[in-house]
């Protein structure tokens, strides 16, 4: 048997100031590939309710991080994923289910032009509330942070969601809820520290 204990894990590093050059070069002023990967989630007419999710990432002092980068992964309106591992049916062919948004360099605001996701089953078969998985990276964050966006106007589904209901501190559930600002527009801010710190998941 070959020894592998001599292969040590490399130490974590922050994303540094170059994350946008590598992940969203067009945002950085480097015009290549005809656009950044993940900037567009809809390849044509999509099924379901089209929405916009926007927000910003705040540090512990309440200041906006203007160099944050946010990625999302979600099901389509029928609760199906655009994945080769999806066995429950055919996902919407015009919806990628994955997006990437760099914060605006002036306001720090990220934006996703997406659709309201359908409900998907938990590991034990119970249905989860409509949600979007989120990954946040920025200078100063050693390991990308994982969280979820749920929707404030899905109260009945949220009340029975197997993830939300198992949070030890139920008073923190609102940190995971996107609020409808206007028709089709939701606001979801990520707070890294402080009394309203967003719930992050160890996945």
What does this structure look like?
The chain is mainly beta and 203 residues long. The chain contains two helices and ten strands; from the N terminus they run αβββββββαβββ. The strands form two sheets. Strands 4-3-6-7-8-9-1-5 form an eight-stranded mixed beta sheet, with no helix packed on it. A two-stranded parallel sheet has the order 2-10. The protein is globular. 28% of the residues are buried.
The main sheet orders its strands as: 4-3-6-7-8-9-1-5
Largest sheet: 8 strands, mixed
Number of strands: 10
What is the structural class?
mainly beta
Strand portion: 15-25%
Shape: globular
Q: What's the helix and strand layout?
A:
Blueprint (H helix, E strand, L loop, with lengths): L18 H5 L26 E6 L1 E2 L10 E5 L24 E5 L7 E6 L15 E7 L7 E7 L3 H5 L17 E6 L2 E3 L2 E2 L12
Parallel strand pairs: 1-9, 2-10, 7-8
Antiparallel strand pairs: 1-5, 3-4, 3-6, 6-7, 8-9
């Amino acid at each position: 048997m070959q020894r592998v204990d001599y292969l040590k894990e490399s130490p974590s590093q922050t994303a540094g100031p170059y994350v946008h050059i590598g992940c969203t070069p067009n945002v950085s002023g480097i015009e290549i590939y005809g656009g950044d990967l993940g900037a567009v989630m809809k390849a044509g007419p999509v099924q379901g309710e089209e929405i916009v999710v926007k927000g910003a990432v705040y540090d512990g002092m309440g200041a906006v991080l203007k160099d944050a980068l946010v990625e999302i992964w979600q099901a389509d309106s029928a609760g199906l994923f655009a994945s080769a591992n999806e066995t429950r049916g055919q996902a919407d062919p015009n919806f990628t289910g994955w997006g990437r948004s760099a914060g605006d360099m002036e306001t720090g605001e990220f934006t996703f032009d997406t659709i309201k996701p359908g409900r998907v089953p938990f590991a034990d078969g119970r249905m989860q509330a409509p949600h979007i998985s989120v990954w946040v990276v920025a200078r100063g964050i050693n390991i990308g942070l994982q969280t979820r966006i749920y929707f404030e106007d899905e109260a009945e589904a949220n009340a029975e969601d197997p993830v939300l209901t198992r949070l030890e501190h139920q008073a923190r559930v609102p940190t995971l809820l996107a609020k409808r600002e206007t028709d089709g527009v939701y606001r979801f801010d990520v707070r890294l520290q402080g009394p309203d710190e967003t719930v992050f998941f160890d996945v």
